[in-house]
Each structure stands twice: as C-alpha cells, then as structure tokens.
Specification:
The protein is mainly α. It has a domain of about 160 residues. The strands form three sheets. The chain has a two-stranded antiparallel ribbon with strand order 1-2. A two-stranded antiparallel ribbon has the order 3-4. The longest helix is centred in the C-terminal third of the chain and has 29 residues. It comes from Butyrivibrio hungatei. InterPro entries: DUF2225. This is DUF2225 domain-containing protein.
Length: about 280
C-alpha cells in the first residue's frame, strides 16, 4: 500500500499508510462476535470550462474555493470499460476531489460533508496537526496536483475509517487520473516510455485495490454503494477483474449479470462486450 501513498511526506503526512487499506468484513464480524503509444490529446482553454466554487470546511469551518467543472459545458466522447467518462475538452476527474487548503481535509465531492463528530476529531488530530499547507494558485490543475489531492483524500478516508466503498472509489478515480495523464503524454518525449510504464504500473495497482475494496463493500454494505445499484457495481467489479487479470471473478460476475432478472438490457449488452473482450485476451 505504500506506493499509493508515496509523496504524502511533502504534505507532512508521511505517517499515514501503514497496514491494510480495506477492512475485511469477515474479520470485523469475527471480532465482534494497453499497448501502442496513444496520440497526444491537446486541451484547448481548459480554464474556460472551470469556475471557483465556494465551500465551508466541516473540519475547521474555513470558507474556501475549489476549481469545479461547469455543468453541461463538457462533452463526453467515450466511456471506458470500467465506466471512466472521457470528455473532449478536459479531464474532469482531475477536479473531483475537494480539499480544504487550510487544514488538509479532503474528500470526493459526494462524501465531503458526510462526517460525524468522531471522524472530525480523528482528522483534526491525525491530518490537521501534521498537514503542510498546499499553496496552489494555478488557473487549472496539473496532473501532479490532482494526484496530490487524491492521495490526501485517501489519507483522510483511512483516518476517518471510511467505508470500503469510499476508499475503493478513491482508488478507482486515482487510476482514472493516471490514465488521463498517460493519454496526454507526448510520445515524442524521450522519457515517454518510462513515464508510461510507471503510470501503467501505478494504475494497475490502484485498480486492484479498487477491485478488492468494492468486493468487500458488496459483501457488507447496503445499496446504493458509491452511488451504484447492485447490477452496476457487479459490472464494475467484472470490468476491474478483467483489467487486472482476475478472469475467474470477471467470469462469475458477468454470468450473474447475464442471468439476472433485474439487470437492464444496457448493462447486459456491456457485460456481453466484456465477455467477448475477455475471450480475446485469453486467446492472446
């Protein structure tokens, strides 16, 4: 797990990251009882698609602003098999973490205000007291800055003992950020292949963590999980399993979707496509 958190030292949080990332619900219960270089994508006036949205930090009560993508301004051109949306104008995933620049509290937007008193106390002691302020004034987020924010969000999730689904979702979206960065690397750069290989390895590690976390969440949490119903989560687990080479899990989840009476035709079509892709990969 250390690789996911490498770099937190510069934020004063190098002590976060020991032990297991996810809490095994079974243990808890017992205690109670891809290939060719891609063409470089160019972003045109990314700043035009952003605005500064105001927030109040639930941990330190500070008012601050964070970059947010204007709703309806960006066009989705594709969706990856693991449900990552790919937009034409910018990489929206870079802007999905909200982080208080004063105290270091950070979370994905859907979880930002869902803190209880005990979680706030833990964050104040383990994050805020050690946090080195991140002074970032650029008009858009670089990939390096976005990755820092995701690391900070994961560190906060660990400290506040967030649900496995929240930590898995952060891992998944961090993997998406790395994928977006890889797509935008300049293939003419002499360090292109080295950077691509590093990103690909980190992305795969994060996808494996996301898979493990979502599998555990499916066993112990009530739906919706990270905003997903049961068939959508089953599909995502199948896609993550295929991407990380766990074909047994992928095959099992695909079969469950295809034989489900509640899964709609759209998700069944996606599952069939996944099944075809998996068969092709096995033949290679």
């Amino acid at each position: 797990m250390a690789g996911i958190f490498s770099g937190l030292e510069k934020l004063g949080l190098g002590n976060i990251g020991g032990g297991d990332l996810f809490e095994d619900p079974k243990k808890k219960e017992a205690a109670v009882k891809q290939g060719e270089p891609q063409k470089k994508l160019t972003l045109v006036n990314e700043e035009d698609y952003l605005f500064d949205k105001k927030y109040k930090c639930p941990v330190c009560d500070m008012d601050f602003e964070a970059k947010t993508v204007r709703t309806g301004k960006v066009r989705m051109k594709a969706v990856d098999i693991d449900l990552r949306p790919d937009y034409a104008e910018l990489d929206q995933t870079k802007y999905d973490v909200i982080a208080c620049p004063e105290c270091g509290y950070a979370a994905l937007g859907r979880y930002f205000n869902t803190l209880n008193k005990y979680q706030i106390d833990d964050i104040r002691v383990k994050i805020c007291m050690n946090y080195k302020k991140l002074d970032y004034k650029e008009p858009t987020y670089t990939y390096e800055h976005a990755k820092n924010l995701y690391q900070l969000a994961l560190a906060n999730a660990v400290v506040k003992k967030a649900k496995n689904s929240e930590k898995a979702y952060i891992c998944l979206k961090t993997a998406w950020v790395l994928r977006g960065e890889t797509q935008r690397l300049d293939s003419a750069d002499p360090d292109y292949q080295k950077k691509k290989d590093e990103n690909d390895a980190q992305e795969k590690e994060l996808l494996k963590n996301a898979l493990n976390g979502f599998v555990m969440a499916r066993q112990s949490e009530e739906f919706p999980i990270a905003g997903m119903d049961s068939t959508t989560l089953d599909y995502l687990i199948a896609a993550l399993a295929m991407e990380t080479g766990d074909y047994d899990v992928a095959g099992k989840m695909i079969s469950e979707i295809l034989t489900s009476r509640t899964a709609n035709s759209r998700i069944k079509d996606k599952a069939r496509l996944l099944k075809e892709m998996m068969a092709e990969e096995k033949e290679q």
